[in-house]
From TrEMBL:
Domain annotation AMP-dependent synthetase/ligase: ranges: 91-288
Gene3D superfamilies in the cross-refs: N-terminal domain of ligase-like
Superkingdom of the source species: Bacteria
SUPFAM superfamilies: Acetyl-CoA synthetase-like
Stated name of the protein: Phenylacetate--CoA ligase family protein
Keywords tagged on the record: Ligase
Taxonomic source organism: Clostridium aciditolerans
Length: 437
């Protein structure tokens, strides 16, 4: 097993001794002080947000914990207030929509320098799983300049790896033919989309695909297990979000969690209720600070994602910290009673373990009726699995208790999956359609 190439990249780039975690931490502290000073000088938002911290010098990560969090609604309210450069120096703008209303849009801005930092990370992160013998298919948006697919392709070209960007999966049959025609052996894509491709066009997977990289959404364990065992395929995971500059961390050959982009980003795990930093090994909310962002730096940005730092070093032998696989979003749940929540990740692990299922949608309506709309290729498959699936769903502890107390009702319904899959980068979620009081 080779050590993650992320280590050599970061050690060489910032000029520290290999294996010296103290030097890396000092680098991060220095960068934190720089980004605070830079943001307060040029960003209207941080000039106001940090006005009570004029004389504060961050000498330790403990000192840094006194800095207030940046929240998603801060960006939604006025994203231009975050800019530290003139709008004419922005080369890429990404609009993130959460529910289709303009009031819930976030706009994230990048300069050319910011995009180059992401390319650099992608180049070394992708080296964890591919080399010059590989041919990579990216099933993510790539038509626009600075999009994730565009940056990935540029990164792989710099290390002489053949890469094709086809956009989010829409027509599985066409993609399967492309895989065979181009002898693709590695795919980068969205977890649920690659599960769909592997189940609809399994022959193309079986004959060609040796490794995949899952990104942009929660990665269900059952998905990893199925693709690994069924196709003898290595399944890597990447963690990132647009606000980070797409890239955050990637797994190495140990497949034991993410090695983080520590020279560009500083990560914390906090208790989502108290806001206090938790110990390694404890799960909490991921918070990050950009260390090298030019256009739109973010300081202590709360992601809403759940993870933990490992208490042990990675088997690959790196001195870098490892973050556990992300468990999804804190808010990707529905409340069914006081302190009782159903999380989508729990439904994922059960529903997606049934190979007849291509996708599903879960939502709750008035009367606490939970509808689970199962998508299959034919109606026969729905009837074949629905009874057994329902029995497993009812064993989820919070659901089991709520059913005994007659708090909820669960209904399985069915939709047929067309030959064209919906083209969407929207993260999957469990929906609440109940009227608000």
């Amino acid at each position: 097993m080779k050590i993650t190439p992320m280590e050599k990249w970061m050690v060489d780039k910032i000029g520290i001794k290999e294996g010296n975690n103290k030097e890396l931490e000092q680098y991060q502290l220095n960068k934190i002080n720089e980004v605070i000073a830079y943001s307060k000088k040029y960003s209207r938002f941080y000039k106001e947000h940090l006005k009570c911290f004029n004389e504060l010098d961050i000498n330790s990560f403990k000192d840094f914990e006194s800095i207030p969090f940046t929240l998603p609604h801060h960006i939604k309210n006025n994203p231009l207030d975050f800019l530290c450069v003139s709008p004419k120096d922005i080369d890429r703008v990404v609009t993130l929509r959460t529910s289709g209303t303009s009031s819930e849009e976030k706009r994230i801005y990048f300069t050319e320098k910011d995009l180059q930092f992401t390319i650099d990370f992608f180049k070394h992160g992708m080296s964890s799983l591919v080399d010059r013998k590989d041919k990579v298919l990216v099933l993510l948006p790539g038509e626009s300049y600075g999009s994730i697919g565009d940056l990935l392709q540029k990164a792989l070209r710099e290390i002489d790896i053949e890469c094709y960007v086809k956009g989010v999966l829409v027509k599985p049959k066409d993609v399967a033919k492309f895989i065979q025609d181009k002898n693709i052996n590695c795919i980068v894509g969205i977890p649920i989309k690659l599960l769909q491709l592997s189940r609809i066009e399994s022959e193309a997977f079986k004959k060609n695909i040796e490794k995949i990289l899952l990104s942009t959404d929660y990665v269900p364990k059952t998905l990893v297990k199925e693709i690994t065992e069924k196709f003898n395929c290595k399944v890597f995971a990447h963690y990132g979000m647009t606000e980070m500059g797409y890239g955050g961390g990637v797994e190495c050959e140990a497949l034991n969690g993410y090695h983080m982009r520590d020279i560009d980003l500083y990560f914390e795990i906090i208790d989502p209720v108290t806001g206090k930093t938790v110990e390694n090994g404890q799960y909490g909310e991921i918070v990050f600070t950009t260390l090298t962002r030019e256009g739109m730096p973010l300081i202590r940005y709360r992601t809403g994602d759940i993870a933990a730092f490992s208490t042990q070093y990675c088997p690959c032998g790196t001195f870098l910290k490892t973050m556990s696989p992300v468990l999804g979003r804190i808010d990707n749940r529905i409340k069914i009673d006081e302190d009782k929540f159903i999380y989508m990740r729990d439904l994922d692990e059960i529903i997606l373990s049934f190979k007849a299922i291509i996708d599903y949608k879960a939502y709750i309506e008035e009367g606490n009726i939970i509808f689970i709309d199962l998508i299959t290729l034919n109606e026969r498959d729905f009837h074949k699995v629905s009874k057994e699936m329902m029995s497993y769903i009812k064993e989820i502890p919070v659901i089991k208790e709520a059913l005994v107390e007659n708090i909820i009702e669960i209904v399985l319904i069915h939709s047929l999956e067309p030959s064209i899959i919906k083209n969407s980068m929207t993260k999957r979620r469990i929906y609440d359609y109940r009227k608000r009081g």
